[in-house]
Amino acid sequence: MNFSIEDYVNAAPSSSSIGSIDAFLEEVQFPNPIDSYIENSRSLLSYGTAVRLSENEHLGGLLLLGSVSAAEAYFRSILSVTLETCPICRHVAAEKQINLGGVLWHGPAEFRRSAFEHLSFSSKAELVKAARGYLGFELRDSSFKGPLEQFDIACHLRHGIVHNGGVLPGRNAVQIGARSYSNPVRIAVNFALLQRTIEAVDTLVLTFNRELFGEMCKRWAVDWRQRGDWDSSREEKLFKKIWDSFFCKELNKTRIGRSNITRNRCVTKVRNIYNL
């Protein structure tokens, strides 16, 4: 056979095309951000059984990747909804820039979704910066220090899986405090590590959902009422919008005392605390 120089390293590949992009896309209807996250997170957990993970060395890393991605989608969605609901957030974010492509794709009714498409949310620094810069919401150490640190470890592992073929890059190794090794180290995610990682991501998402809900209730009860654009005839409608955005129906299915967890009881609690 007559080989070219290039043939000596590998045979020429066949030409291929991924085809129409529309073949990859399907329209979906999402529940609110926290219910969507919980559905994704629980789906990953149920698929990542000990047997499946032991059969494929790549599966654990891919499910870890899915967990962080689900959290990113939650943060992007809840920030978008909150930005739309809260006048204080809109004031804080008024001078932020958004991508024209996102506006054109989502259209006038859903353009808020494009506000966070240029942010990755795959690090604690990005999340803290976005919450402060778009919502005026500070992630206090008393609630967020531990969850953010654990989420950051998951994000560094994700970085190695996505960008380095599953091998931990040195920069990420240093930042998460990994010890030195003689050889490159592969990120090996077994059943126990996957369970712990998804639990750590869950902790941050659920903490964020609780704390931001509390902040929105406080703004509804106090801050919004001090603004010139406050319309008292819409207060119930506005509270319902907050409730619908944050209340997790999925988790409430198994909560103890769930018959007492209602919007009416919650708004009464808020009114009592803030003397309304």
Notes on the structure:
The protein is mostly helical. The protein has a domain at 30-202. 59% of the residues lie in helices and 0% in strands. The chain contains 12 helices and no strands. It has helices spanning 33-47, 50-55, 59-85, 87-92, 100-106, 124-135, 141-163, 170-175, 191-223, 235-246, 249-252, 263-273. Helix 3 runs parallel beside helix 9 and helix 9 runs antiparallel to helix 10 (235-246). The longest helix has 33 residues, at 191-223. The mean pLDDT is 92.
Number of helical segments with 4 or more residues: 12
Shape: globular
Q: Give a short account of the largest sheet.
A: none
- The percentage helix is 55-70%
Chain-averaged pLDDT: 92
Order of helices and strands: HHHHHHHHHHHH
- How much is the radius of gyration in Å? 23 Å
Report low-confidence residues grouped into runs of 5 or more: none
Percentage of residues in DSSP E strands? under 5%
User: Structural class, from helix and strand content?
Assistant: mainly alpha
Instruction: Please report the distance between the alpha carbons of the first and last residues.
Output: 88 Å
Count of DSSP strands = 0
Keywords:
276 residues, mainly alpha, globular
Summarize the structure.
With 276 residues, the protein is mainly alpha-helical. It contains 12 helices and no strands.
Topology:
Layout: H1 33-47, H2 50-55, H3 59-85, H4 87-92, H5 100-106, H6 124-135, H7 141-163, H8 170-175, H9 191-223, H10 235-246, H11 249-252, H12 263-273
Helix pairs in contact: 1-3, 1-9, 3-6, 3-7, 3-9, 3-10, 7-9, 9-10
